Amino acid sequence: MRSKTTEHKEGKATVKIVYFTSKTLADGSHPFVVRVTKNRKQVYRYTGLSLHPKHWNATKKEIRRTYPDKLREDLLDKLDGWRKKYEEAATTLAGNDEQHDAETVFKKAIEGRQAQRRVKLLAYIEELAVGMVAAGQVGNAGVYRDLANQLAKFIGAEYSAPEPPLGKGQEVEKAAWVKQHDIPFDRVSVTFCNEWEATLRATGVEEITLSLRFRTLRAVLNKAIDAELAKAENYPFARTVTERRKFQVGKFDVTTAKRAISRDELRKLEALQPATDRQGLAKDVFLFSFYCGGINFVDLAQLRWQDLTGTDEHGRPQRLSYVRQKTGGKFAFKLLAPAATIVAAYRPFTFAGLASYVFPVLDSRKHQAATQIKNRLHKVLGQVNKDLKELGKQAGIATPLTTYVARHSMATTLKQDGNSTAVISQLMGHKSEAVTAVYLDSFASDIIDSAFDSLL
After folding, report:
1. What is the largest CA-CA distance in the chain?
2. Class assignment of domain 263-453?
3. What is the pLDDT, as a whole number, of residue 74?
4. What's the pTM value of the predicted model, to 2 decimals?
5. Hey, where are the domains in the chain?
6. Does residue 447 surpass a pLDDT of 50?
């Protein structure tokens, strides 16, 4: 008896992991995709893994050897796991002599991943965070883990279960709690989102934080759908304005309150004599940011003496060049006298070679790993903003001072002096003038108010 088979020997589909440079993610990285080719037709699926181009050797088409070994090995293992899943499906289909195309390979792989389909929300978020850390995206990983922690609290309250332990040495207990009280993706419904929003609002969470958490949750579900772990028909978020019954992430008011101070107020801060070295650092951070195009704290804290060049007649540096951590954008400009004076004052205390940090925030001997640097910056930023608020009160400035106020103030001052939004946008490293416009909202309001005053 002949076995049931096709009239021809069915060929095997080829499976390859591709660094997909045609797609650029928000953090500047490119995603890795699985490419299945059958009968000259190619089909792609995202893996959820990505890598910044500075770590990719385009000539050899491989991860650069300079990428940390542990992170490199972890990423390669994950990518190999994706390849094997679809390679096995392709081998099975060819071995069974089943007529098929590239899409069939993906469907077959899904059948073999039924156990993986039971991956739940919190576990998946942690999986994404681990992948981000491996790719050097420590900041993004922190955002995703914060989301998971907040969702865990909400889920715990819903189940009337105690919150997971968060102390050191209790990781095992926390993992067990998450596994026990995790929820499947289809539980994240419109009702779930509405109830979580109400819970967050009851604790006083601000609009901008609500927007961030729901945008991150939406991104998690999008990734889960792309990875075929969640069903698109259960998606709770509105994709268009016509989907009024679904959860609208765009409803949150993320416009900023007035966060710029005037030149006169800046002079008051400059004249103030801080009582402690810590307050002195906070004052210097604010003023240096203002006079250096609104450089943000993360970039400021990681400036090294090699980024400063030239000297004037007083021995102060004349130019600053640096790469913005968030976007990879390159900046180079002259240092105004106030900024040059600030860094010159730190030279006797922090200069131990061109590679040493300018400001006394990071210690290259202590803070080496990306996580160590992130934690240190987070801690010191909190201290700086706390001290700035106190300094603002002492100087009689009504607006609560933060490092972001320095950035807003710089933008507003330039606009008042007649500089175009396009120039300010380029100086601040924004991707579009629309982003810069957010910083200038309060300025626009002042202009309108003045216009009405002219009617009197």
Report:
1. 102
2. mainly alpha
3. 84
4. 0.52
5. 14-113, 121-251, 263-453
6. no
